[in-house]
Amino acid sequence: MKHNIIQLIEQKNRAYVDTSNHIFVKTGNVVRVSYKITEGAKERIQQYEGLIISTQNRTNSKTFKLRRIAHGVGVEQTFPLFSPKITHIKLCSKSKVRRSKLFFIRNLQSKSKFIRLIK
User: Fold this and answer.
1) Structure pTM?
2) What would you report as the CA-atom Rg of the chain, rounded to the nearest whole angstrom?
């Protein structure tokens, strides 16, 4: 009974999901994510650009983790793929990687040696 209710909720949620930008979410790609931030009564759109180092593929709760270097410090942020706060995902560059999780990049100084860009 409980399992059937969860499936019904997931089916209804799939109807509201816009999947047009989600083809870019693959490990190794560099993407720019535009998402809404609410500060008090104001709402603005902020952009976050980084390398996708991992993805979690669950039914309606898919997430991806972006990594970038900000002021010499590595910053990672996790985004839910089907969030209504994400307004746009733009592909900046594609790369060919042979791993599904790129956590080893945290320890590297030069990322360009290990990630081949597709032109």
Assistant:
1) 0.78
2) 16
Q: Where are the beta strands (DSSP E) in 1-119?
A: 30-39, 42-56, 63-70, 73-80, 86-96, 116-118
Q: What is the pLDDT of residues 54-101, one digit of tens each?
A: 999 876 678 999 999 888 888 999 998 888 888 889 999 888 888 899
Please, is 46 exposed, middle or buried when counting C-beta atoms within 10 Å of its C-beta (0-12, 13-18, 19+)?
exposed
Decide: 76 and 67 in contact? Cβ < 8 Å: yes
Q: Which residues pair with 80 in a beta bridge?
A: 63
Domains of the chain (ranges plus CATH)?
18-118 (2.30.30.790)
Q: What is the largest CA-CA distance in the chain?
A: 52
Q: Give the pLDDT of residue 77.
A: 94
Average the pLDDT over each of 18-22, 35-39, 113-117 and give the range with the smallest value. Answer: 113-117
- What is residue 79's three-state secondary structure? strand
* Surface-to-core class of residue 52, CB atoms within 10 Å of its CB (0-12 exposed, 13-18 middle, 19+ buried): buried
